[in-house]
Design a protein that fits this description.
Blueprint lengths: L9 H10 L10 H11 L10 H11 L12 H14 L3 E11 L5 E11 L1 H14 L1 H4 L4 H15 L9 H37 L2 H24 L1 H9 L3 H9 L7 H5 L2 H25 L4 H6 L4 H25 L3 H13 L66 H12 E3 L2 E4 L3 E3 L2 H11 L17 E6 L6 E5 L5 E4 L3 E5 L1
Parallel strand pairs: 5-7
Antiparallel strand pairs: 1-2, 3-4, 4-9, 6-9, 7-8
Helix pairs in contact: 1-5, 7-8, 7-9, 7-10, 8-11, 8-15, 9-15, 10-13, 11-13, 17-18
């Protein structure tokens, strides 16, 4: 049965072109396509995986037409297969007897080389696709860390059945979880380093707060859980028969390996020794990751202590960002008090004309125009004389007078009227009846003071320069009329009020 050739996605194709499996510049995808043929079509085609079969299938459906790949010859394919078998170990070759059908109709038996994909080749096919999708699949999460810790504890407690493949499966799951956790922690390590660098320059208060919360509430506890497994990993490494038990469990009662089915003692022994060495090697690498000595940290690819150093550095940078934001924050309450104090004396403030500061570009031969304080010498300011014509204004230039000018507030007269109408004492004011004013300023100040009945902070309600201590409405809410002579309208207050001054 001939299967349709699988198309290669562009990201995977770019990666394969970069790696050039098979080491042939004219056929950079040949190694990958040969593995695909052996993996998908070898067992199902009904034909032996000979060199002729592979060349025929490759030239039929697997040529890279986009890059105008030419058909591959038997000699070139043979060299690529040598690389895959002897150097990469992804393909296995064996001499077997096969039947060949001649053009005359006769069938002959011939000994030829047959190719089959190895377990490493199968893993390579899967792994390369995971490499392409790593940006989506590599992630750090606490549930995966919890799962890894649970599997380690299960292996230490010897809860897995060694008579079946359960112990081997648990060990394999633990290694997979360990790899996922370490890849996720490394990604977190890189992301934190980049983000902390950005925060060090941008001082993002909100982002820094969220990130610091995540680190303190999730990342640090997760790291502590990982660190808590160090003693258990060391314990597994010290168990003398653990690797042997895992290797025997791989060939347990539910194993589907053909060597076990046919009783191939040599194959079973070779597989046992490989697995035992693999378990010992993996435990040694894990133990190295959890060892705090400088030599172990230098020789470990996934040292947990290097990962935690990045977390500590990120927390330090976040603390500095928080401190920067706190120092830059304006005390609104203090600023409001200063503004209120300024408003009490705004009519007596004097703003002086600033003295003109000459720019450094107005001077000739300045050593450092950016810093005049450090200049050893400074020439005088130079100006270009310009003729200036002074315009003489006459009465004709005056603006037109309007019919009615805006009334000017006589503050002294307004203050006198204010005292006469509403003051009951030096520091007490009562408004409990309709009032008739002669000055607008007195009427307007009284209306503004009434709005203070809705507040408990009176620094902004200074009346004629006097600070207000308290303002409150009268108990009987009777509307009052305030009228100024000469105006056609009146101001009505909802109720009377009284006030006390400092």
């Amino acid at each position: 049965m001939n299967l349709v050739a699988l198309s290669i996605a562009q990201p995977l194709k770019n990666l394969l072109l970069a790696t050039n499996l098979g080491l042939n510049k004219n056929h950079p995808l040949a190694g990958w396509n040969i593995l695909t043929i052996l993996y998908r079509e070898g067992p199902t085609s009904g034909l032996p995986n000979t060199l002729d079969f592979l060349a025929r299938r490759y030239n039929s459906d697997y040529l890279d037409t986009v890059n105008e790949e030419t058909p591959i010859s038997d000699d070139v394919l043979r060299k690529i297969l040598v690389v895959l078998t002897e150097q990469a170990g992804l393909v296995e070759v064996n001499l077997r007897k096969v039947r060949r059908h001649m053009q005359s109709g006769k069938t002959i038996t011939q000994q030829t080389a047959l190719y089959r994909i190895t377990s490493s080749g199968i893993e390579y096919l899967r792994m390369m696709q995971r490499v392409v999708d790593a940006e989506s699949t590599v992630t750090a999460n606490t549930l995966r860390i919890d799962e890894y810790c649970r599997l380690v504890q299960k292996l230490v407690a010897r809860e897995s059945d060694a008579a079946t493949t359960q112990l081997y499966n648990d060990f394999a799951d633990m290694l997979t979880a360990y790899e996922d956790v370490m890849k996720g922690m490394h990604k977190l390590d890189e992301d934190l380093d980049e983000l902390a660098n950005d925060l060090a320059f941008n001082h993002g208060g909100t982002a820094a707060g969220h990130l610091q919360t995540m680190l303190r509430e999730k990342a640090v506890p997760a790291y502590q859980k990982l660190l808590g497994q160090a003693a258990r990993i060391k314990g597994l490494t010290a168990v003398p028969d653990f690797a042997e038990r895992v290797a025997r469990s791989q060939q347990g009662s539910d194993d589907l390996d053909t060597a076990s089915a046919v009783g191939d003692k040599a194959g079973m022994l070779l597989r046992f020794e490989r697995t035992q060495a693999y378990v010992t090697r993996q435990l040694g690498q894990m133990n190295l990751s959890f060892t705090s000595s400088s030599q172990a940290i230098d020789n470990s690819l996934d040292s947990i202590y290097l990962l935690f150093q990045t977390i500590l550095n990120a927390i330090k940078v976040l603390s500095q960002a928080f401190e920067h934001v706190r120092n830059q924050t304006i005390d609104v309450k203090a600023l409001t008090a200063e503004i209120d104090q300024l408003l009490q004396h705004y009519d007596r403030l004097t703003v002086y004309q600033p003295i003109l500061r000459h720019a450094p570009f107005d001077r000739d031969d300045v050593e450092d125009p950016n810093d005049l304080l450090d200049a050893s010498g400074m020439d005088p300011v130079t100006y270009v004389a310009e003729k200036k014509t002074r315009k003489v204004y006459t009465a004709a230039d005056n603006p037109e007078l309007v019919a009615t000018a805006a009334p000017t507030a006589d503050r002294q007269a307004a203050l006198a009227e204010f005292k006469q109408l509403v003051l009951r004492g030096p520091q007490h004011l009562v408004v409990d009846h309709d009032l008739e004013f002669a000055t607008l300023a007195a009427r307007d100040e009284l209306v503004r003071l009434y709005s203070a009945t809705n507040y408990h902070h009176y620094a902004s309600f200074t009346i004629f320069g006097r600070a207000v201590r308290r303002v409150q409405q009268l108990s009987r809410p009777i509307p009052l009329r305030l009228h100024c002579r000469g105006e056609k309208y009146s101001v009505y207050l909802p109720a009377g009020f009284e006030a006390w001054f400092e």
